[in-house]
Amino acid sequence: MIASTNFIPMSPQEYLSWEEQQPIKYEYVNGEVFAMTGRTLPHNSVALNLASALKNHLRGKGCKVFMADAKLGISKKGPYHYPDVMVTCDERDLTSRKIVQFPCLIVEVLSPGTEAYDRGTKFRHYRRLKTLKEYVLIDAEKICLECYRINERGKWELTSYLIDETDETIKVTNTEVDEIEVCLTSVDFNFPISLLYEDVVFDTSQE
Fold it and tell me: Where is the Putative restriction endonuclease domain (predicted)?
């Protein structure tokens, strides 16, 4: 994600009209626009694997699954983002043609250049959504998933699913990866963590 330089701040309405004429997608925060840069192939594979699995799981259940080309509006005044994957089961979204506003699940696949933003500012934006129940961060460079869930007290709690030989809490071999089960409670979906990394080629140059 790259901020556009020499750019005059826009109103939300100006942004929405302007972006429709652009060849690439732009996020919108506080009057500024940010170009959505290209992702790596592992990033794309992880997002596609999860979106495909969610689509199959939710078929016929009155929900929709969207990938990175779907715009999310935090409010009518913005910010506007493009999550890697999101799910909405809200009737108000099911007939929408341009913007999702009431998701229950948002997923971001982490990239080195956007990880801090996804964990910080973007998560603060997402927490303003009253319908959001889970926020998931997935690492495309190693087997790791972090799931934030809102509890009955309205507080966000973190559950981590991690394959790391240096981690004292979870020690598994590569052949046991599929034994770690991830649970997305917002959509009642359980799956092995290996599902996310099907066909993903990890960078072994640092080993």
Answer: 13-172
The H or E element containing residue 52 is helix 41-58
Structure tokens, 110 = 């982490």
- Rounded CA-CA distance 53/183 in Å is 13
Alpha-carbon gap, residue 127 to 193, rounded angstroms: 25
Name the phi and psi angles at 36, rounded to 5.
-85, 110
Strand partners, 158: 148
Name which of 97, 107, 104, 108 is nearest 62 in CA terms.
104
Query: What's the pTM?
Result: 0.89
**Which domains, and CATH codes, for the chain?**
1-37 (no CATH), 39-197 (3.90.1570.10)
Tell me how far apart the alpha carbons of residues 155 and 147 are, in angstroms, rounded to a whole number.
13
Q: How many CB atoms sit inside 10 A of residue 102's CB? A: 18
pLDDT tens for the 207 residues of the chain, in order: 555 545 789 999 999 999 999 999 999 999 999 998 878 999 999 999 999 999 999 999 999 999 999 999 999 999 999 999 999 999 999 999 999 999 999 999 998 888 999 999 999 999 999 999 999 999 999 999 999 999 999 999 999 998 764 443 333 334 455 478 999 999 999 999 999 999 998 876 654
Measured CA distances, 97 to 85, 89, 162 (Å): 17, 15, 37
- Rounded distance, CA 123 to CA 156, Å? 11
